[in-house]
Amino acid sequence: MLSPESRSIIDATLPAVEAHANDITDVFYPLMFERYPEVKAYFNQTHQAEGTQRRALANAVVAYARNLDRLEALGDAVSLIVNKHVSLNIQPEHYPIVGECLLAAVKQVLGDAATEEVLAAWGEAYQQLADILISAEEGRYQENEAKQGGWRGERTFVLARKVAESEEIVSFYFEPADGGSVADFQPGQYIGLVLEIDGQQVRRNYSLSNRPGRPYYRISVKREPDGVASNFLHDRLNEGDRVQMTAPAGDFVLKDSERPLVLLSGGVGITPTLAMLEPALELGREVHFLHGARNSKVQAFRDRLAELEQAHDNLRVTVCYSDPLPDDANQTTGFFDRDRLASLLPEDRNVDVYFLGPRPFMQACFQNLNELAIPPRQIHYEFFGPLQSLS
């Protein structure tokens, strides 16, 4: 429990920290990577360059300080952090590194205003949060280890198959190197891969694109022009090669419900919604699978969606091409704007919607779904990277 003295100091200095939160995180990350280069592998450098990771940390620090006495007000943010940390195999010894460098960044940015008393108060608040996260993460590690086929930390997997799904997306089928079983997962969850690329360790999260209950894990990865990990996977990881993997994690999962289900995706955002599709169909739910892609050359899983639609009367598939090719003349084109969604969703709007894709796609979906009066509790989404605002 935070001491009254520290709480008073944090309340008094929060406006200054909030005003300079982005400056603090801009100092924090380079400082930490300089002092402790071994932790750089735990951070996606693309997100670093884009600034999304820094902004997410700044927002998280401020939100935490505002709600020291009522952490439940943070909603799903704490669980999101715990899941990401578990997928990266974050350990208790990493927390002092972050704390040291975060306080050093506060001192550098705030200058004389960051007295020893101020730094001590913020250090106490940080330790309180660290203890909460460490405890929650330990619980998840134990749960993962206790599952049939489960494990703690990293486990060696072999790439059994590599299948091109489109010109941009390739699926990778991984099986345990020890010949054992794989832990079950919830549709929508992701795994963590630990890769060795040109002598450097790189960690990435990827959504599982297969339904649960298979003897393998499948991820489907889009090649990004400057993507260190995606280009390595596409070009240099071959069948028979080994990788380290962390256990499935994530809260963006298909929840039990009898309501009609809308799975709305853009681009490679199809991966978790595809994992949700078959289990939902088998439960007899009415499913509207809505997917946006640029054209037929980059659309993944086209044949599989057609097979499922033919086999299930409770499935309706609508695919829109935003930049169709001449051969795509018979395909629906455009975007899932408000009018198109209104025409595709059940009239009573009593549906569960799960959506994922590029940030502009998600912003448009969020706005359109709200305007169409979908109840907020029935709208579910997740970011591929750091938490961002959709407003």
TrEMBL record:
Print the organism lineage.
Answer: Bacteria, Pseudomonadati, Pseudomonadota, Gammaproteobacteria, Pseudomonadales
Q: Which UniProt keywords apply?
A: Detoxification, Dioxygenase, FAD, Flavoprotein, Heme, Iron, Metal-binding, NAD, NADP, Oxidoreductase, Oxygen transport, Transport
Instruction: Kindly list the cofactors needed.
Output: FAD; heme b
Residue limits of the Globin domain?
A: 1-138
User: What name does this protein carry?
Assistant: Flavohemoprotein
Q: Cite the NCBIfam families for this sequence.
A: PRK13289.1
- Catalytic reactions of this protein: 2 nitric oxide + NADPH + 2 O2 = 2 nitrate + NADP(+) + H(+); 2 nitric oxide + NADH + 2 O2 = 2 nitrate + NAD(+) + H(+)
Recorded hits in InterPro entries, A to Z, give: Cbr1-like_FAD-bd_dom (IPR008333), FAD-bd_FR_type (IPR017927), FNR_nucleotide-bd (IPR039261), Globin (IPR000971), Globin-like_sf (IPR009050), Globin/Proto (IPR012292), OxRdtase_FAD/NAD-bd (IPR001433), Riboflavin_synthase-like_b-brl (IPR017938)
Q: Name one GO biological process term.
A: response to toxic substance
Q: Per the record's keyword annotation, is Ribonucleoprotein included, yes or no?
A: no
Please report the stretch or stretches of sequence annotated as the FAD-binding FR-type domain. 152-255
What is the E.C. number? 1.14.12.17
Ranges that cross the membrane: none
Q: PANTHER family per the record?
A: FLAVOHEMOPROTEIN (PTHR43396:SF3)
